[in-house]
């Protein structure tokens, strides 16, 4: 996208784009919209060349789709394909960008901080390092519902003190929903305690315990790759996961991306920051509608949109253009 286009598009005042992370993938995603818009297959071809994998084939057949090192580049590519379709249709750029976990990289590509090629290489490596950091079956994640954040933190601390290993809050998703991650036996211990306290605990079908201290070895190796990758400050502010803030310089940006591997995703605070900055509309740019559904429940968000089908794309395009005063 040209600088001129971004300058015109940056007039959006009430809209933020959010990009999903792992868990939003499904076999056959974007097949329908790819038939209508050439940008989808072109984006997948560009990303596939960068990592030497046929990402579109993985997406459509499901072969290896849930292997972390494949899931991450596939999801990033899918999100950027939809972003490019949005722009090709005359969609305006938002006031802010944010991404949940892996989605932060999609946001950085959309903001022209990273090229798609470099970002796909980074997340492919990120997935490999994360997969290798913890032996299969020794880590786990679970969603805890119905307890206050402080209660979940306390249960994690108690389990970590009494058991072997660690369990921590990994994602603060919304009020009353925290994802925990860590040593599998301790995650199970917290889940049992939560259920005994009338809360709800759901084991997540993941192979890697993300956003906890078990990922520190992966982060150390990943930091080297980040240092060797050309990164600029984004042209649209990107709210980063670890501190729910936009970086003031590239050093801060790189540091936050490194820490994101082993620190919790501050998604609740991210959405609150958007609301504090008069964001009324949230558009989820990626497969599915996990993030837009979470935002729907917030009192100050007027409407949320997803973009992963042609009809959803067109609905969002028209509604945002009207809301931002670009068309009557």
UniProtKB/TrEMBL annotation:
Q: Which domain of life is it from?
A: Bacteria
Pfam annotation, one family: Acyl_transf_1
Give the molecular function GO annotations: [acyl-carrier-protein] S-malonyltransferase activity
Record's keyword annotation contains tRNA-binding: no
Keyword Transferase set for record:
yes
Reactions catalysed according to its record: holo-[ACP] + malonyl-CoA = malonyl-[ACP] + CoA
Q: What is its EC number?
A: 2.3.1.39
Q: Which UniProt keywords apply?
A: Acyltransferase, Transferase
Q: Report which residue ranges the record marks as coiled coil.
A: none
Entry's transmembrane regions: none
The Malonyl-CoA:ACP transacylase (MAT) domain sits at 18-313
Top class in the EC scheme: transferase
Which family would the database say this protein is a member of? Belongs to the fabD family.
* NCBIfam families in the cross-refs: fabD
Q: Report the protein name in the record.
A: Malonyl CoA-acyl carrier protein transacylase
What is the organism field in this record?
Answer: Acinetobacter pollinis
Gene name per UniProt: fabD
